[in-house]
Design a protein that fits this description.
Layout lengths: L1 E6 L3 E10 L5 E11 L2 E10 L5 E10 L4 E10 L5 E9 L3 H9 L4 H13 L8 H18 L1
Parallel strand pairs: 1-3, 2-4, 3-5, 4-6, 5-7
Helix pairs in contact: 1-2
């Protein structure tokens, strides 16, 4: 799983590849990217070489300011009986979401921050508590820089 944040002038070209070559193998790639002036190219590649595998790729990007968010999902199945899927989405925060939160008492900055925090909330299974704390702190600090 990856969380990518690109400020103005940043250029991030990153990706993940998983090759599934044993029956019963399962895999999931989750990527979240936010650009507020930088460039993010998020690549994901799942390769199914044997029957009986299952894999999913999810890549979502949020553009908060001028910048580039490019999602490149790839699925390669070599035999019948592989089950692979992907979803990719790139866009901006829906103004209606901001207005909804503002109608409930948040100012615009708080509303955007809440939406971004929810967008970045990627559950990384098995992450040690200390590392999760560092991740949460980094996300919080990054949000301050974006506003």
């Amino acid at each position: 799983n990856s969380i990518l944040v690109a400020s103005k002038g940043s250029y991030l070209d990153v990706g993940s590849r998983i090759i599934l070559d044993a029956p019963g193998t399962r895999a999931e790639i989750i990527s979240r990217g936010i650009t507020y002036g930088g460039t993010i190219i998020a690549r994901g590649d799942l390769v199914g070489k044997v029957a009986g595998i299952k894999a999913h790729l999810e890549c979502k990007g949020l553009i908060l300011n001028n910048g580039l968010m490019k999602a490149i999902p790839e699925l390669s199945g070599f035999v019948p009986g592989v089950e692979m899927s992907h979803e990719a989405a790139v866009g901006k925060i829906d103004q209606r979401e901001i207005e909804y939160l503002m109608a409930r008492g948040l100012d615009e900055e708080e509303a955007i921050s809440t939406i971004v925090r929810g967008f970045l909330n990627v559950n990384i299974e098995g992450l040690p508590p200390g590392l999760q704390e560092k991740l949460d702190k980094t996300i919080s600090e990054t949000q301050k820089d974006m506003m």
